[in-house]
Write a structure and sequence with these properties.
The chain is α/β, with parallel strands linked by helices. It has 2 domains: 113 residues, 5'-nuclease (Rossmann fold, 3-Layer(aba) Sandwich); 35 residues, Single Sheet (Rubrerythrin, domain 2). It is built from 6 helices and 8 strands. The protein has a 5-stranded parallel sheet. β6 and β7 form a beta hairpin. α4 crosses α5 and α4 packs across α6. The longest helix has 13 residues. The protein is globular. Bound molecules: zinc ion. The site of zinc ion has 8 residues, from loops. Zinc ion (ZN) binds next to loops.
């Protein structure tokens, strides 16, 4: 299986190392063009040396059509469309993206995706599940115990728990 990376995973600083366990890892030419400076560019250059591949999708019509049919087309950038188009072209692929509109279109195409998450430098195989944590006393709850903590009355925050 191949992996396609969204530009946001670089720009947000979440992508810091080469994801392992994939045949090839790709970005589109438009994604590369969006990452031109600073630390994200340093990370990108490093990943290119490690074998990250840059490819422009051969056609975007199918991706445009898919985005139109889910109602996401107006909200997707040309770069977003290129990511979807490349994923369609590659076939056996997963897309790393936090963008709900991209995810929505991918879902309609039965293409696998995974959010990059909020913490950098972790491998793609990790999965996350939700837990609830009290901002006051720090207790964890498997299910939301209500608006306020039953112990100390502070706000409850939904948070990610590392599950694997
Ligand atoms: Zn509490």
């Amino acid at each position: 299986m191949d992996l396609v990376l969204d530009s946001a995973v670089f720009l947000s600083g979440r992508m810091t190392s080469m994801p392992s366990g994939f045949d090839s890892v790709y970005i589109t030419e438009l994604v590369r063009n969006e990452i031109s400076r600073g630390r994200p560019n340093m990370v990108l250059q490093n990943l290119l040396e490690l074998g990250l591949k840059v490819r422009g999708p051969s056609g975007i019509e199918g991706a445009v059509e898919a985005a139109r049919s889910t109602g996401d087309l107006d909200l997707l950038s040309e770069t977003d469309i290129s990511i979807i188009a490349l994923a369609m072209q590659l076939g056996n692929v997963k897309v790393l993206t936090d963008d709900f509109r991209i995810q929505n279109v991918l879902k309609s195409l039965n293409i696998d995706f995974e959010p990059a998450g909020e913490i950098g430098n972790r491998t793609i195989q990790e999965t996350w599940e939700w837990t609830f944590r009290c901002k006051g006393c720090g207790r964890y709850f498997d299910e939301r115990p209500g608006q306020d903590c039953p112990v100390c009355g502070s706000d409850i925050k939904k948070t990610r728990k590392r599950s694997m």
